[in-house]
Amino acid sequence: MVRMSAEERRESVIRAAMIEFARGGYKGTSTEAIAKRVGVSQPYLFRLFPGKEAIFLAAARRCCERTNEVFCKASEGLEGEAALREMGAAYQALIADDPDVLLMQMQMYVAVASAEAAGDREFGETLRAGWMEMYDTARLALGTDVGDTTQFLAYGMLINVLVSMGFQPDHRVWAGFYESVQPQRSQQSE
Fold first, then answer.
1. Which of 98, 105, 80 has its CA nearest to residue 156?
2. In whole angstroms, what is the distance from residue 152 CA to residue 9 CA?
């Protein structure tokens, strides 16, 4: 059996943390659950990360990075409407292929709001920075019009809400979307 390096183990913790936090939220996820998913002890987990907050922030950063990478790859060499369509389709594929990415995003928003309601603004700074990277990537691909970027991200957030709430592709709430961002209908719903 090949032993993992500390960096490889750290990566496995981040992947496991994304899954656990996506499903249980910041407050509802124990470090014990993350350690168990990775197959390490809690003391080892804390040799890699100073605490639960650091693990959550690393998982949240990874979630934002992954989404940002999808936007960058999809919009490479494109701009304007073509970039919008490709980024939208790529994002939709990302959350369809890995629902934990969507759930982790939703948990990030809840965790920041909860921390700030308790007076901890610092917690959200890292998460806002990651979100701003996605914003800047979209804005660069779409051009200098802030309105286009806002509209693209607003549609993305609405898609997040509708998908996370389980609205099926044939539900009437999808009727107002551009065809390129409507979820794919299964053969059964046609």
1. 105
2. 36
Tens-place pLDDT, residues 167-186: 888 889 888 775 655 555 54
Letter for the amino acid at 69?
E
Q: State the virtual CA torsion across 44, 47, 53, 54 in degrees, nearest 10.
A: -130
Task: Give dist(CA 115, CA 66) in Å, integer.
Answer: 24
> What does the pLDDT read at residue 187?
42
Any alpha helices (H) in the chain, and if so which ranges?
A: 6-28, 31-38, 42-48, 52-75, 80-97, 99-117, 122-142, 146-164
Q: How far apart are CA 147 and CA 65, in angstroms?
A: 23
Distance of CA 53 to the CA centre of its chain: 17
Q: Which two tokens stand for residue 157?
A: 């957030």
Alpha carbons 31 and 22: distance in angstroms, whole number: 14
Helix, strand or coil, per DSSP, at residue 175:
coil
In this predicted model, what pLDDT tens digit does every residue of 124-182 receive, in sequence order? 998 999 899 999 999 999 887 899 899 999 988 988 998 888 888 888 988 877 565 55
